[in-house]
Amino acid sequence: MKSRLVLGIESSCDETAAAILEGPRNLRSSIVASQIPVHRRFGGVVPELASRQHVLAVDTVVRDAMSEAGCRFEDLGGVAVTYGPGLVGSLLVGIQVAKAISFVHGIPLAAVNHLEGHVCSLALENEEIPLPALYLVVSGGHTSLYLRRRADSRYETLARTRDDAAGEAYDKAAKYLGLGYPGGPVIDRLAKHGNPQAFAFGIPKMSDRSLDFSFSGLKTALLRHVKSAGIEPLDFMDGEKDPGPEDCPRPVLDLLASFQEAIVATLVTRTFKAVGAERAACVGLAGGVACNSRLREAMAAEGRRQGVPVLVTRPALTTDNAAMIARAGWEHLEAGRLADMSLNADPGASLG
Ligand code: KG4
Ligand code: ZN
Fold this sequence. Notes:
The protein is an alpha/beta fold.
């Protein structure tokens, strides 16, 4: 690379983001324009609205990232962009912008898998990642376990979800109970005030003994508890106000705490089963749900018990952002793995 500055661009779902990274860890800027207010009243991301919002935001977001870092396009050593997985119309916006910058300014282009981006977010703040490393990527679209054995080896998929992702379970539960969107942060906050033992949720097990996840059963169990306890949905979906514990009847707080505990127990149990099977030297937690305070606490406690470090990053680098894309792109650019003008979106791209 002619310079150590990499521009990262991310537009796979409902965040338009750009970041400038210098070398492997010096984050010079990271701008994220969230579309949450646009999608909130629908209780989930509306793909057509998402791509339009990206078109409106991308120019400003890239310019802001460049000016905050104090650099010009001519200073860049590379541009890295998410090519998938994600929403096709959204991905294409970031890809077209990255290709245009690359073409006009003669800057090398790197194509980054969004999931690899999440994994690489951990390298932004953790200097040393002991190998073999086991990564739990847990977001609104994915719940997967990946293993990286050596620095030069590919990511191996050890487990994935067979139905809903963990973040999706949070979002659907919050929508059903009228708590707002996205569901994760609000449930994280409210669950602290409830009793996690109040409602019984089984931990889903796979009949073929694989490590795969399944969260749709928890959703059904939640609906059953709502009916049997006579819980009425609240009215916070417009996002004007976030519900506080004082707005929620006791059974709602208890239900949220119990629901969250079941998700956390599933994630911790499966992750450490894989740690044992693969003799992993560390666990890396990434993706939006990795912001969850109870998950972080339970993972850290199990890590301490088993003598395995659990690595995390600050929440701004855990949810969708472009710093992680720049970090993954930096590795590709250093290794000479370049993309060209034929780069296209791959909405179903997998990692490993
Ligand atoms: O990684 P991310 O920003 O986007 C995807 O790639 O999906 O993850 C978004 C997901 C949403 O489902 C959101 O509810 C969840 O992450 N999330 C949380 C928390 N913060 C965000 N889930 C649980 N607890 C949180 N504190
Ligand atoms: Zn993501």
